[in-house]
Amino acid sequence: MAISDAARRHHDELFPGHVSTLARTDPELVEVFDNFAFDEVLRHGSLDTRTRLMVQLASMIACQAVNEYRVMLGAALTAGVTPVEVKEIVYQAVPYVGMAKVFDFLHATNDVLTERGVELPLPGQSTTTPDTRLERGLAVQKQIVGAARVEALHASAPEDEQHIQRYLSAHCFGDHLTRDGLDVPMRELLTFAVLVSLGGCEPQVKGHVAANLNVGNDRVRLIEVLTQLIPFIGYPRTLNALRVLDEVTVPEDTP
Q1: Which backbone phi and psi does 17 adopt, to 5 degrees?
Q2: How far apart are CA 244 and CA 66, in angstroms?
Q3: Cα distance between residue 20 and residue 213, in whole Å
Q4: Distance between CA 211 and CA 206 in Å, rounded?
Q5: Residues with Cβ < 8 Å from 42, sequence gap 6 or more?
Q6: pLDDT at 130 (0 to 100)
Q7: Using CA atoms, how far apart are residues 150 and 137, in angstroms rounded to an integer?
Q8: With b meaning 16 or more CB within 10 Å and e meaning fewer, what string describes 144-154?
Q9: Does residue 137 fall inside a structural domain?
Q10: pTM score > 0.90 for this model?
């Protein structure tokens, strides 16, 4: 098998001048992977290059694939993803995968940006203060999740769990989802990519399938995202996500 012309062209566009050492040591695997990831998969759907690379970066954080993340970060910057957008992808991963898992990716991001001459820190993107984070967080949480659902979560939580609901509204949504740099529909696509890639988060995936629908990302777009993640997360997590997606978006009486 040889690497297809389309795969070679797409690869060269993202990684100009890069020659993989694996192409010499493991040529058969590289041929299969490149033909799949940079040709066959790219022929499905209409997800633009920037969006594809952004959800893949978010996925790689969840997968803890820091070396691959470095490589794909270079490709994303080459394709026009801005330093601010890259940093927002990393920051948004924190409430979903935890700072312990994001720490190395933050340093990797800083290294790559510095190597490219980007001056750090970047302009701040926060839009809240300690006094407004809960109110603003609740507002965006209701926009994404649905007002009735959010109010029910707060009302039904036992007294000894109320602080967790406040954290979710003020920290996850207030500190992170209200930031500038990325709009809410893109942030929900990133959240979907992260949760799918973590594995074992099907209840949260289900909630964020509904949330994506609420903010304008339809079933077609979510399937396109999953398709672009397959080469990096494998089939079990992809199929689990598709099952959840079908539960939310396919009517029960559909044959």
Answers
A1: 80, 0
A2: 28
A3: 39
A4: 9
A5: 6, 10
A6: 97
A7: 11
A8: bbeeeebeeee
A9: yes
A10: yes
Q: State residue 43 phi and psi, 5-degree precision.
A: -80, -10
Domain that holds residue 157: 126-178
Within 64-201, residue ranges assigned H as helices are: 66-78, 83-97, 99-115, 133-145, 147-156, 162-167, 184-198
Is 170 within the bounds of a domain?
yes
For 219, the token pair is: 């079933």
CB atoms within 10 A of CB 197: 26
Q: DSSP assignment, residue 123?
A: P
Tokens of 175: 């500190």
Separation of CA 228 from chain center: 11
pLDDT in tens, the chain (255 residues): 699 999 999 999 999 888 788 988 999 999 999 999 999 999 998 999 999 999 999 999 999 999 999 999 999 999 999 999 999 999 999 999 999 999 999 999 999 999 999 999 999 999 999 999 999 999 999 999 999 999 999 999 999 999 999 999 999 999 999 999 999 999 999 999 999 999 999 999 999 999 999 999 999 999 999 999 999 999 999 999 999 999 999 876 555
Number of domains in the chain: 1
Q: Is residue 209 part of a domain?
A: no
Is 214 part of any domain? Answer: no
